[in-house]
């Protein structure tokens, strides 16, 4: 391990141990779509033939400061194409889209509640993936092809990640060692859809409650890392809570989600939450989660977030990508300074943007570089 890698790793392990690090860790997050565009490559071509993907990632690593690996590819199109996916579809612009889908019919709630895994295999997957809606022999062949494509893609990505971590001396810990969803969110995103779940909450809340409870053990299993490590984290994007009435959140969203995070903690893992949209009315709930939970906020009052959560949890996010697009370089740097002055005192803070940077035109590149460099050089304790 080089001195730079050791120093960066120490920053993150100190944060996760509840210690004040030498300086604020910088977490730059760029999607593979941005990296491909930034490198001047064709977005559609590189996603199907990933020969040039590593070079695209290197371009981002060369030009943008981060203490953790700043680039990742979360979903590649190959295995979705093999499956005939309806829930993730490649758009004509080269971006993978997530259309509104209904994987679980309302009449199948009882089957899901009784045996969620069996219901997913027997009913949900054929609804979401057209090539699985066939005879058993054909389904087996399709699933084998898709799994081969999935493992090939991921093995290549993990090889690239390892190369980049070593070449650029990034921190060896990761905030993305596993992935799952809150039980209510998986019910919404992949099973019922936004429209249907909104109706279900009002018409059949008892079944919704039973379904999220049934899904919770599956989400704990899904989020369990192959080699649990308190210095890594399982990523959980939070979707539906801001769209729920508080009373529905308290009954249908929070109990199963809390059980999920606590279940991961009991196995020696911590959660890395992307707190999407505005969770300000739920800050007291988030405070109840196991100490050291990582929370990257999209919106909110940084002073109140720091006051309520900053002593117990690791907080970040909130820097607006819109300012990187529209502001002057000085305005962008001043905003970073403002957030650091509020969030950094006492530790438990990682600098990051309010969203992953996905498209090249969503930010001004020079502003983005200036902000990341400023934090790296001026956020020492």
TrEMBL record:
Family annotation (CDD domains):
CmuA_CmuC_like
One Pfam short name: URO-D
Ranges in a coiled coil: none
The Gene Ontology biological process terms listed for this entry are: porphyrin-containing compound biosynthetic process
- Where the record annotates domain Uroporphyrinogen decarboxylase (URO-D), the positions are 176-375
According to the UniProt entry, its GO molecular function terms are: uroporphyrinogen decarboxylase activity
Protein name in UniProt: Uroporphyrinogen-III decarboxylase
Q: Which organism is it from?
A: Desulfosporosinus youngiae DSM 17734
């Amino acid at each position: 391990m080089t001195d730079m890698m050791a120093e960066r790793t120490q920053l993150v392990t100190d944060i996760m141990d509840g210690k004040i690090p030498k300086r604020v860790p910088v977490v730059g997050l760029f999607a593979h779509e941005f990296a491909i565009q930034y490198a001047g490559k064709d977005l559609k071509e590189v996603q199907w033939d990933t020969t040039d993907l590593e070079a695209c990632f290197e371009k981002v690593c060369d030009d943008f400061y981060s203490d953790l690996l700043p680039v990742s590819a979360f979903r590649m199109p190959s295995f979705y194409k093999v499956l005939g996916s309806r829930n993730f579809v490649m758009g004509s612009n080269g971006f993978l889209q997530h259309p509104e889908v209904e994987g679980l019919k309302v009449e199948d709630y009882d089957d899901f509640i009784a045996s969620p895994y069996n219901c997913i295999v027997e009913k949900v997957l054929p609804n979401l993936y057209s090539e699985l809606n066939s005879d058993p022999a054909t389904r087996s062949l399709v699933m084998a092809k898709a799994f081969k494509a999935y493992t090939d893609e991921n093995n290549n990505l993990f090889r690239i990640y390892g190369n980049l971590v070593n070449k650029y001396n990034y921190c060896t810990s990761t905030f993305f060692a596993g992935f799952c969803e809150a039980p209510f969110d998986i019910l919404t995103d992949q099973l019922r859809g936004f429209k249907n779940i909104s109706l279900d909450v009002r018409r059949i809340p008892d079944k919704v409650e039973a379904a999220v409870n049934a899904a919770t053990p599956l989400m704990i299993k899904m989020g369990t890392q192959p080699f649990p490590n308190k210095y890594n984290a399982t990523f959980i994007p939070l979707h539906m809570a801001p769209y729920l009435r508080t009373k529905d959140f308290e009954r249908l969203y929070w109990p199963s989600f809390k059980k999920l995070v606590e279940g991961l903690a009991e196995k020696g893992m911590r959660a890395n939450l992307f707190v999407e949209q505005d969770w300000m009315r739920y800050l007291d709930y988030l405070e109840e989660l196991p100490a050291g939970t990582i929370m990257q906020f999209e919106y909110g009052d940084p002073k109140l977030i720091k006051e309520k959560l900053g002593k117990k949890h690791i907080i970040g996010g909130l820097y607006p990508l819109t300012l990187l697009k529209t502001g002057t370089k000085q305005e962008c740097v001043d905003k970073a300074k403002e957030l650091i002055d509020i969030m950094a005192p006492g530790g438990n803070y990682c600098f990051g943007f309010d969203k992953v940077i996905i498209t090249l035109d969503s930010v001004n590149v020079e502003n983005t570089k200036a902000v990341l460099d400023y934090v790296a050089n001026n956020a020492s304790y």
